[in-house]
Amino acid sequence: METFTDRWRQLDWDDIRLRINSKTVDDVERALNARTLSRDDMMALLSPAASGYLEAIAQRAQRLTRQRFGNTVSFYVPLYLSNLCANDCTYCGFSMSNRIKRKTLDAEEIARECQAIRALGFEHLLLVTGEHQSKVGMDYFRRHLPAIRRQFASLQMEVQPLSQAEYAELKNLGLDGVMVYQETYHEAEYSRHHLKGNKQDFFWRLETPDRLGRAGIDKIGLGALIGLSDSWRVDCYMVAEHLLWLQQRYWQSRYSISFPRLRPCAGGIQPASLMDEKQLVQTICAFRLLAPEAELSLSTRESPQFRDHVIPLAITHVSAFSKTQPGGYADDHPELEQFSPHDGRRPQEVASAIAARGLQPVWKDWDSWLGRTSQR
Predict the structure, then answer these.
(1) Distance between CA 31 and CA 25 in Å, rounded?
(2) Closest Cα partner for 214 from 138, 174, 163?
């Protein structure tokens, strides 16, 4: 069966890097005037030559965002269910080799977390776990997902890659979306950072969005961990290739793009390539020009000042007051966290900052029963 792996094998990392870095200002201006972006246009907007056109790119991105999404920004929050992990990854605080306290929430603890999150005003929840198939795999999800689902308007997950049949089962239990980040699309670099565990399988992870699309999952989230490879520009372009592939084949699903930069964590590494804030704005706006209908998300990895200024340009979904450890909302234990968030403001403070810029914070914009039936 055809998957994104087939397209990936046609793409040469070094050739893409050369093509991006050789783009000229004429290429950038051509991309800015294009009604629909080509792959070459996307390369131009990610290139060093586009740095002098940041204002023009941002203005067009903002117009497209307002046209498609209006003056709204939707809120979500992650709920970390477990920091158990059977993988050894160089960049993650949950890595099995890190000597941190381990915790998996039981039903009572999950209920307390949900109550604390509901009190903060959130309706859209992202469930996150370390990758541990036996302790926080399908049996765990079957036990706990229905009770969580009843309390929130939408439910998404960021967990280990699963099979198509398992995703279809979770959809019937109320799952609306899955975020799965390739980390890096450079196979050799991927191997260098994934030392033990199932996550070493580059292609099983690469083909996860295809399985999601075939399972009929409503929303599929993509992204690369910016700074993991030696060229963030190529990794971001590969995300664009992945998005275009999926949109063509699984058009019934919605798509979300995230832009996580490496953040400090236990046992963490230094970025192999540095993306500064201007370059992050450039990348976010380039994706808006490429995919006007895609949801673009910005997490609490970034600073309050940066988020306040960038959200009005092209961002449609934001997290706030994120706790990256199990039990973080009812019982704050920072020694369990996956990484240290940068924006620690409470949700209403973030919402007020968004409203001050003429935008409407949206706490609920989705009812799963509109369009399909889930077992709740």
Answers:
(1) 10
(2) 163
| 53, 83, 375 from 279: Cα distances, Å | 11, 32, 43
Please tell me what DSSP assigns to residue 260: P
The residue-averaged pLDDT of 352-374 equals 81
Q: Count of residues for the chain?
A: 376
- Count CB-CB contacts under 10 A for residue 356: 9
Residue 197: left if φ>0, alpha if ψ -120 to 50, beta else—which one? left
Q: Say how far apart CA 373 and CA 43 lie, in whole Å.
A: 41
Q: Which amino acid is at 155?
A: L
Q: How many helices (H) and strands (E) does the chain have?
A: 15, 11
- Quote the pTM value: 0.94
Q: Give residue-wise pLDDT tens across range 282-309.
A: 999 999 999 999 999 999 999 999 999 9
> Which H or E element spans position 45?
helix 39-46
Residue range 326-341: mean pLDDT, rounded: 74
Q: Are 327 and 103 in contact (CB under 8 A)?
A: yes
Q: Going by C-beta distance under 8 Å and a sequence separation of 6 or more, which residues neighbour residue 69?
A: 316
Residue 298's beta-bridge partner residues? 318
Tokens for 9, please give them.
């094998």
Phi, psi of 343 (to 5 degrees): -100, 105
> pLDDT, tens digit, for every residue of 158-173?
999 999 999 999 999 9
